[in-house]
Structure formats: C-alpha cells, structure tokens
Amino acid sequence: MNTMNSTITSEASQPDEAAVPVQEDKPAETVIEEGKTVGKPFSDNAKFKLRDVEVFYGESRAIKKISLDIARNEVIAFIGPSGCGKSTFLRCLNRMNDSIEICKVKGSLQLDDLDIYDNKRDVVELRARVGMVFQKPNPFPKSIYDNVAYGPRIHGLANRKSDLDEIVENSLRKAGLWEEVKDRLDATATGMSGGQQQRLCIARAIAVSPEVVLMDEPCSALDPIATAKIEELIAELSESYTIVIVTHSMQQAARVSHRTAYFHLGHLVEVNETNKVFTSPEHELTESYITGRFG
Ligand SMILES: Nc1ncnc2c1ncn2[C@@H]1O[C@H](COP(=O)(O)OP(=O)(O)OP(=O)(O)O)[C@@H](O)[C@H]1O
C-alpha cells in the first residue's frame, strides 16, 4: 500500500489540502486518507500497474496519489460523482492528456513492463495498444470501410487489399455491425445511426488489434436499444481485451464490469468486485453514492 501523506475530509471543490466540513446530506465524519483505497485495488495478473498517480491541471490537483492494478481481460468500471477525476485518470492510460498543455502526470504508470510516460515512448504505438472510444461517436467523414481501414493503413498492418478487407470484415463482425453494413461499405459513416456510429468507432478501435480498449461514457449519447447492443458487445470483447469503462450509470457498471472503482474528489476510495460494491460496499462514501445520497 502507499504512504498516506495526509487526511482529507470529504466534500466538493475545496482547496486540495484543506480539511473541510462535509455537506449535511453526506456522511458527517467521512475522511479519505490520501493514497488509501479500500477493497481490492491490486491484482496478480496486472495489465496496468499504476502507482501514486497524480494529475495536475496547472496548480490544481485532479488526481491524488491513486494506485491501482487493472487485470488482463477484465472489465473495470470507473464510477463517481461528476468532476471526481474518472475521465482524467482514464486518459492517463494512453496519454490522451498529452494534448492538454497544462496537464501534468506524476507517478508510475506501467502497461505490462513498459513505462507509459517514458519520454522516448512512441505515443502512436501506445495508442494502437490502448485504443479509445469516446462519449460521442466520432467517425471520420469517410466511408464505413475507410473508417475501419484507417488504423491498419497507418500502422502498415496489411500488405494486400485482401488482407485489409479481412481486417475490416473481422473488426466489423466483432463490433456486431457486419450484417448491417456489409452491402454498403462505401457509404459515408456519418449517415449511420448514433448506435451504429458508436459500434463503428469500436470496430475502428479494434482494427489495430489493441490489447486494451478505454471507453469514456460510450453509451451516454445512445438510446436504450443501442446501449444494450454496446453492453452485449463489451461482454463479448472482454474475452479478448482488457476494457476500462467510465460510466455515470451504476446499472451499466453492474451489468458489464467485473470490478468497479469508486472515485471521489480525485481519490480512489474503493475498488472491489462489482457485485460487492453494489451490495455491500466497504466505504461509507461508496455506500452513500450507490444509494443515491449524492452524485
Ligand atoms: N482540460 C482541463 N483543464 C482544467 N481542468 C480540467 C480539465 N479537464 C478536467 N478538469 C478538472 O479536473 C477535475 C476532474 O475532471 P474529470 O473530467 O476527469 O472528472 P469526471 O469524473 O470524468 O467528470 P464527469 O463525470 O463530469 O465527466 C474536475 O475538477 C475538472 O474540472
């Protein structure tokens, strides 16, 4: 476990190091010990080993000494109130935060034995291993085929057209989209429904054979039927990939994930088997959140 540098009393948007009173509808004496996460944050089969991770936006510390393992082929859900740092932490896993100039990441972040933040790291290669699907479907304004073929082309994964065709077909099949689009691969992707576009983005992400797929609220722009399709897909994909999903829906976390991580004010408060988090959480802040007392 990590060193515990300070003790911070819960609640929102206060200066980092201050101990501040909680709001009335929150547990009165709840404290979060920095760097201390209850439950089972570590694994014997880690794909990611993340230790004492801190993320700063300028002077403001958005992630506070988080340590966590993410296991191979697990689906882990990140949940917590708005602004608690779920997306910020997720984006560290493939250095998506690099594009934000004021953002600085500290600590040790390893993918297998590779230091993700090594200065010499090829970020394009890293993102091929750790793909990402965003909140809003963001297909390129190109054909369905070219969206999926884009990554394999830039990474030189296919020498012949027939190889590329095969990658495109397999990726669309894995994303549960092949039957719907096989007769219109040349049609523009932006003409598809929102749910189809999101499955296309998943096909695009898996076309470069990533080991990990990060999903940042992938269903928040979708209707319940499209959401159900993506959730089925997550279950199928978890046989081949490690999946990290940020979600505001506790029902979704309960349906799709093996472990759930509860974030609060930049701390990782609790990580446990999903069933345990939702039936008998160990930390009172987790309990307050899942019972709807705040969030
Ligand atoms: N680009 C940025 N510049 C400055 N501060 C940022 C930036 N992105 C996020 N933050 C801040 O970092 C903290 C964590 O934000 P983040 O988006 O990671 O939280 P979240 O839990 O994913 O929230 P939500 O559920 O609302 O998407 C917040 O205080 C937020 O205001």
TrEMBL record:
The keyword Nucleotide-binding applies. It holds the Pfam family ABC_tran. Coiled coil: none annotated. Signal peptide: none annotated. Residues 1-29 are annotated as: Disordered. GO terms for biological process: phosphate ion transmembrane transport. GO terms for cellular component: membrane. This is Phosphate ABC transporter ATP-binding protein. It comes from Marinobacter salinus.
